[in-house]
């Protein structure tokens, strides 16, 4: 059996059998499970394909597993409060956690707490990174969504106040879910809220593009990889599919006049809390409070498979299978440091990092000018060598070459002379 | 012979005799008639080249007369043109180019009467030609205007300003595009350029020339009045330029911040309408290579600015250069004006002039091409002119009017005339009140104060102090301010509060505004303005520490209750603020909201029922943030759901919100304490399910009404038929939307069913009169909630069977096709098919012996319907014995009249049973 390409990672709030489990996407077989504790909603995340992190329900720590050692809880990161949402940046460099009203930002390589952003007025419900890790979006129970620029937050210049790049204040009830589209800072972000709406925003300008009103509150939202469709999980167990580029063609197809029927996935009986679409855009994963996980075929809107859980599903997503996941002997490339709980590392007495280099921006910081100069010099000398050779030649080589050529000329002359003699004989003979 | 005699000759000879009158010949012409000519004016006119004036002059004649040397002829021609164009408007468009060029040429005519006539003609033409038609000729017009403005004769200069007035009124945008030439002209009108001579040391190294105020003694008006007229036009012109800028660049001026700026128009969709939406959804215009034009990411500055902005005011440097020449001039004007008067008491004219100076300064600041450059300009103004401003403006700061009644009486008539002439009759004399002047001064000065937090306090205290005290006193004065004065005053307070981080100062100012807010009898617009001020302050600037603001917020729920339905607009504004504050967990507000909750959500006259639909929705959404739901509030809410004054969908929203706040929903409420206790939540759901409160039901028991059907053995209850819309609403709330769904998702179904069973047992069992909506709802919830492993109580089953029978009999009475009939039938069927015992009980209760003969057909019909239904057929077969017995009794009792219904029933029975057997074997 070859290793699966895509896997489903899911967790429920009961955590009786396992904390979180990994399923094969197409066959639904349980591949791995990670034990110990349980995970709260929207707080399960994968850190650079090597660790799985999940916020514990009702306790102030984060469970960490190495991805290949399934049974063993590796570490617990103790936080200042209960973790309500958690996410790691796609490049694996930063970790974000919503703890009560504040967002905590850690640097993974050192474990330093870089910033505590307390702009929300109430508890956070969801944090998401854009796919290029340049921005992140946070939503809370205070109806507000903030778009933050990561680079401006982690600058050493602490005098600058940390303000979000955009404040999206269109919702009128708490935010339940956020999904960031592709294309980084030029992408779109979809937000779902209890006020029965799903809104689509542009990250670059912070303007609202689309607002869809439903009959029920919306608990989860996702976009398919092409961003053609918006999937919205309702509070009554229905999943709605909104086409983002619908044209008027559908009017002509009288066969599809019952268009409401084919825009809805029916099957769940309670809040649909998690939605995720597979890489090729054909399968939709949904997790619900009715303690099941369902897999749907998007084209036909049918439920392909149902996986029962022991409690309300809190996290479920489809990811490309990390390389290390099925190699029991592999090791993570970097060990996880101790995550600090305070903003200023010097207070803890970690003086080693105080005087040392604080490299936050720019991966290649070792005197790049010199190397570039050297490179330029090298290039220059190379180019000079080439031109010198072509014009003046090289002492030893040319002599040999000249003698070779002279010899050739000699032989050619000889042949020519022979030819001449032969032809003159031929011409003069009859006479 | 006789024949011959009688015959007359053809040519009789006429004998003429002397002394007798010559007889008239037969063929003589009578000249007694009079002739008159007939004018067919229309025909004649068509023959000629076009319509004419009353002097029979065509448009060509008139235009050619404009080149006449005589002023009277020219004036006459202009008058004629106006008359002609007024009567034949299409001519204007035909000859627009010639008319405009001739009229424009007349701007610089040396005769005043001609110029005035040209002006009137221009005004007329401007009225009937839209801007886009004039645009191609505008360079010509503005060239002539420039010519007139820079003319050597002062009369022509003065009249040019009147022309400018007309153009500003009708074509502000076009004029604003040509500011390059016009701005310098304005300067030349009141000053003269001194070429930097070698002797004079140049004050500014950058500028090669300086300007100084000029005085022309031969002018009829005083220099002061002349400057006033020029400055007035200048300010209007700058205003037009600023407006134009705002239109093209999306620059948000300070007073427009309240209005929501929306650069991208978002698409609003409704889920139901979405598949049938017309235009289709398109949100991908800007995806990919080209980011949206409104993106805040700026990789490099825009290379080409907007089309309308040309070199003069296109960049910050250009504006600064213009300001460098203008501001000193304005300062000179100010100094001369103040110098004429004494101290802070100034005369009427001077005040108007000062007002204009300040207005121009204010507009100058807004001239920057981009919004973010404004701060840069501000800081530049501060560094270069703050000292001058402070010295001159603030010296006698709170200015007031010098009251000179005697003088005024004397020269009232004369003064008025000159004034009118000066101002072109278009400026309101109310412009020059001292309050307005002082407020504008404050506005100008406040923009110069230091922004940013890092600046030391007290740097500007010496001049900000008087401003602050002035603002405070004006607001605290108790006098009512109109919207026109209040708006700039609030702007001043806004920037003072934002720039000043000292808390006591801020509090004092806010206190003053709050005092104004608390006055009675404010007009709605003013009240709205104050409300917006506070809510903006709260929403945008996060001044949550302010006590005044907290007090104001806490008072909002009370105000909302007091407002009731009187002013929906005001209520909507309040609600918007309330909702945000509630979402941001403002403690004072939540406390106040909690105390007022019962009156806000009163089912009879609370805001939630009297306000329009969108406000209702806000109110319902606000419920989510209430810290606690006491039982009486829940009772109110349940009544709101049932009375039908809010829509069914909104009621569903309400129920869902309460569901979310209860601990049973499972929505993450880790930190919040649970707001709704489980007991209260169940009572809420149950009372919403029933739809009637206890009192109403007991009152129904005693009621004698025709709407209450009498009980019979066939229908054990007297059914009270609720009004149609109430039934529909209740059914929607129960079935279509939330109640059943909430009950279904509660977790353990059997416990939930037990609870509701008890509820039914306590409140409903034993009643004689039951509303039909209650019956339907109870049947519905039983069918949805009951599953296999729950055994319902015996009493409940009896009650249900009674319900079922009554409903079935009601079903037969209703005329087909109604919503109610469908609902009743659906509820009965669902209940009967989920609970097989219920069917048995119903059949047992059909005791044919107790029925009277008229009811037999009905019983037969019901049986038939039940047998025909596919879901019920098997259950019916299971109760075959009972069924057989009923049918036997029916045939037995109605033996004397074997009617159609009986044969139908028998046939139906036989087919059902036989098909069943067929299935069996």
UniProtKB/TrEMBL annotation, chain A:
Keyword terms: Cytoplasm, Developmental protein, Nucleus, Repeat, WD repeat
A cellular-component GO term for this protein: nucleolus
Domain of life: Eukaryota
InterPro entries listed in its UniProt record: WD40/YVTN_repeat-like_dom_sf (IPR015943), WD40_PAC1 (IPR020472), WD40_repeat_CS (IPR019775), WD40_repeat_dom_sf (IPR036322), WD40_rpt (IPR001680), WDR18/Ipi3/RID3 (IPR045227), WDR18_C (IPR026987)
All copies of domain WD repeat-containing protein 18 C-terminal, residue ranges: 383-430
Positions of WD repeats: 117-158, 189-211, 265-306
Cell compartment(s), UniProt: Dynein axonemal particle; Nucleus, Nucleolus; Nucleus, Nucleoplasm
PROSITE patterns: WD_REPEATS_1 (PS00678), WD_REPEATS_2 (PS50082), WD_REPEATS_REGION (PS50294)
First-listed, main subcellular location of the protein, grouped into a coarse class: other
GO terms under biological process: DNA-templated DNA replication; rRNA processing
Nucleus keyword on record: yes
Biological function: Functions as a component of the Five Friends of Methylated CHTOP (5FMC) complex; the 5FMC complex is recruited to ZNF148 by methylated CHTOP, leading to desumoylation of ZNF148 and subsequent transactivation of ZNF148 target genes. Component of the PELP1 complex involved in the nucleolar steps of 28S rRNA maturation and the subsequent nucleoplasmic transit of the pre-60S ribosomal subunit. May play a role during development.
Record family assignment: Belongs to the WD repeat IPI3/WDR18 family.
The protein's name: WD repeat-containing protein 18
The organism of origin for this protein: Denticeps clupeoides (denticle herring)
UniProtKB/TrEMBL annotation, chain B:
Organism of this sequence: Denticeps clupeoides
Protein name: Pre-rRNA-processing protein Ipi1 N-terminal domain-containing protein
Any one GO CC term of the record: MLL1 complex
Record-linked Pfam families: Ipi1_N, TPR_TEX10
Source taxon at top rank: Eukaryota
Similarity remark: Belongs to the IPI1/TEX10 family.
TEX10-like TPR repeats domain sequence ranges: 548-913
Record keywords, A-Z: Nucleus
Region Disordered: start-end pairs: 1-33, 409-429
UniProt cross-references to Gene3D superfamilies, sorted A to Z: Leucine-rich Repeat Variant
Residues annotated as domain Pre-rRNA-processing protein Ipi1 N-terminal: 133-238
Basic residues bias spans: 14-23
Subcellular location: Nucleus, Nucleolus; Nucleus, Nucleoplasm
